[in-house]
Amino acid sequence: MDSQAKYCVLASGKADLMLRMLSPSRLNYREKIWDQAAGLLVIEEAGGMVTDLDGKPLDFSTGRTLANNRGVLASNGLLHPAVLHALRQLGV
Predict the structure, then answer these.
(1) 78 by DSSP, 3-state: which?
(2) Helix/strand/coil for 51
(3) Distance of alpha carbon 37 from alpha carbon 82, whole angstroms
(4) Of 18, 72, 82, 91, which is least surrounded by CB within 10 A?
(5) Do 79 and 18 contact (CB within 8 A), yes or no?
(6) 39-16-20 Cα angle (round to 5)
(7) How many C-beta atoms surround the C-beta of residue 7 within 10 A?
(8) 71 vs 28, 32, 56, CA distance in Å?
(9) Are 18 and 55 in contact (CB under 8 A)?
(10) Does the CA dihedral 66-81-74-45 come out positive or negative?
(11) In angstroms, what CA-CA distances link 44 with 12, 21, 22, 51, 61?
(12) Mean pLDDT of residues grouped by 10 in the chain (92 residues)?
């Protein structure tokens, strides 16, 4: 499913969480801004949250990729702190 469709499902309340994890074979991969920017706005307007896997806001100022971010965590907002905590505990 395309990234924007995933964001729409989450914003509609039919999902609670979306993770874009890092592949062990591509640890230096960074998300493209066009796959995340519009979805972030939709999620935030619906009351959710979007950060990277470290809890940092997505930085769209670095060109074509989210060079200052690792992965993406989008949530309904309620689960966000707990998921970030679990990711830290797992060493992700």
Answers:
(1) coil
(2) strand
(3) 24
(4) 91
(5) no
(6) 55
(7) 25
(8) 10, 10, 10
(9) no
(10) negative
(11) 12, 20, 23, 11, 19
(12) 86 95 90 95 96 97 96 96 96 86
pTM of the entire predicted model:
0.92
CA distance 16 to 14: 7
At 73 the pLDDT is 97
Buried b (16+ CB within 10 A) or exposed e, 79-92: ebeebbeebeeeee
Amino acid at 76: N
Burial class (CB in 10 A: 0-12, 13-18, 19+), 68: middle
Q: Hey, what amino acid is at 63?
A: G
Find the length of the chain. 92
User: What are the tokens at 41?
Assistant: 């706005």
Q: Which residues contact 72 (CB under 8 A, 6 or more apart)?
A: 18, 19, 20, 31, 36, 50, 51, 52, 53, 58, 66
The answer to whether 38 and 2 have CB atoms below 8 angstroms apart is no
The residue with tokens 């990277």 is 52
